[in-house]
Amino acid sequence: MFIQKGKSFGFILIFILILLLLTALPFFVDLFYQTFLTELFVWILFAISFDLIFGYTGLLSFGQALFFGLGGYTVTILIRKFGLNTELSLFLSIIIPILFAWFVGFFSVKLTGIHFVIITIIFAIIGNIIGDTWTSFTGGADGLTFSPPPFRLGLFQIDLTDIKGNYYFVLAIVAISFLFLRRMIQSPLGKIFISIRENEERARLIGYNVQRYKLIAFIIAGGLSGLAGGLYSLTLKYASAGYLHWSVSGHAVVYTIVGGMGTLVGPAIGVGIVMSLEHYLINFLQATDLVVGIALVFMVLVAPKGLVGLIQSIFKKGETSA
Amino acid sequence: METKKTKKKVEGILKKEISRRDFIKTTALGAAGLSLSSWAPVPFTYGAQPPIKIGMLNEYTVFATEYGYWLGKVGRTAIAKINAEGGIAGRKLELHEYDTKANPAWSASMCRKMILEDKVDLIMGSIHSGVHLACFPLIKQYKIPLFSGGSMTYEFTGKDSLSLHGGYYIRNHSHARSQAVAAWKFGFNNLGKKWTFLNADYAWGHSLAREFGSRVRAAGGKTQDIFAPPATQDFIPFLQKVDPDTEVLFTAFLGSAGLGVLRQTVEVGLHKRLQRFTVICTTEGIGQEVVGKESIGAYYIEYHPRHLDQLPKELHPYEIAYRKACGVDKEGKEVGNPKVTIAGSHMYSMWIYPYMIKLGIEQSGWKDSKKNMDLIKAICSLKLKAGPWCPVGDLVMREEDHQGFNDFYISRVEPDLKLKILEIIPKEKAMYEPETDLRKIV
Q1: Which residue in B112, B163, B225, B264 has the fewest CB atoms around it within 10 Å?
Q2: Burial degree of A58 (CB within 10 A; 0-12, 13-18, 19+)
């Protein structure tokens, strides 16, 4: 109990320190790094939402791109075509993907293993085809641009076209989402997700409705992926059918594998490493994906549990030998 | 007297016996010195002024790489030539180049990197409409001119120009509407009145069907639209839908699908009862020998001929110089690599832009981004005459919509697989009423 409380206190302290650091950062880095970090926060949200179903529930879904794209399009289309405000559009970028996730999950979670992977890819492909061909509504592969109105919350108003304003806005939402996911994972619901990942059969025998809990995880991850897509669109002021492509889910897979699945910090670190590597390499060569691919193979061979898993195992070894 | 002294000194040195150790030491030091000197920054001799930074985005990987390769090569060559000729207003051009990966969202990130980190003054390149669209919010916000490499979406210089990019987009090449305005009549008068469009099911394919189709229908013709996924390999199910009375089959696909559709029209025998008409975009960067003999008899709309001898004679001197600089032979193949065919109807845009920028800067007195709109206005009022920097013949920029016009060509694939020009359509016949007036922007 005491150790648990100490761990929580340690987390809160580190979390606040990081948040303070990130809050102060825009005063020390130029506009480019502010936008780079904003984009990085969005991908962190997408990666941790993916980690909920992959790392914590054991479901490898390539369908997250569908929810990411839906979130992006919800914000873009509602603002551009229906003149809705940013607050409501962003809120609906969670709700609409949740509804779709419920529908997709209803069919998908009945399947396991490779069959689950395939059905989620198929749903993402269907979404991408619709996005690509329904050009009058989605803009197809070319996409749609828009200009977001300021985000209003009571007396506060944030201009999302301002780089710094957008930075703080995205940082706040991603930080809240991170805390929400952490709290959920520590709750009894999170423990059930983990028990399903560890031994689905045993979880079923204990009396849990495994499919129902898988569906809950799928829906929550879908909603958060949608939110990430919505934030991405607000950051770029643009959405296209490319957001719906299943390979976008591949980003989350890479980030999670590099950082370490089943740890919310892992995917966040993975995003930081991969995006920084890409940003650094692009100054020297065009084929950055090739290097990222090699890094991924290296990580899988050397540290199959990702960077966080590797650090944890080193600490554990140290404790055992002591 | 001094000469004699020097002679003696040299003789002394030569007579002096050199040990093996001395030789190795001297050679090694010399080699090290040479290597280090090659790493040292070479000062630009035009003056101490900062360089003009040009960003370039192209499709080098993933998709449409046959375009990206040539647009990149020609853009680099043109910038090197401008630098070799003394730069612009005594300033060197510095190139910052990135791959779009044919991914608009990634391209927006690269565009932002170029604007905010590399601090580029201007951006050019890419044939991907989505890439341009994704960059529009950025160029509009930071007021950075973007020169289109080969985007075919006519709306970008249409009525919504101001809201899309704030007037910071410039296009010196054709697009779906100007192609239709220029070439529909040739097809209607010479190939047939009943058209079927079998196009890629995305914005470009729809745009071509809409632009050509509306004109054919307005002239009393009949049209049918069939759209297939952009990466279709088996066209038989779609070709079966072609109306039996179709006289003209207009197709628009990129890459292998573009080849597949032409081949399969022959496999099902459609080529015997109808004429095949398409834009050169479908086979740019791909040799006709790769498309195969199935393409014989197909009609193409070209924006700049692939084969040198198909060009009007008066343009030959300029074209020869342009091809020589870019490493292209008279048949439109890469010098030393005849398997690589040029994207000739697109890549010229990247050759002309640096020159247009040069003229624009000289005319507007541009020094930095504060006068970007003045620079754009100067560039968009240019009337270029055929010359070494404008091998496509006269090119007119239109101030109202920042759109350029040059001549079009109708060609047919001959039995020797050569694209033979049948008709030259002057640029005036490709012009349409501008839908916007960007001259009002201050």
Answers
A1: B163
A2: buried
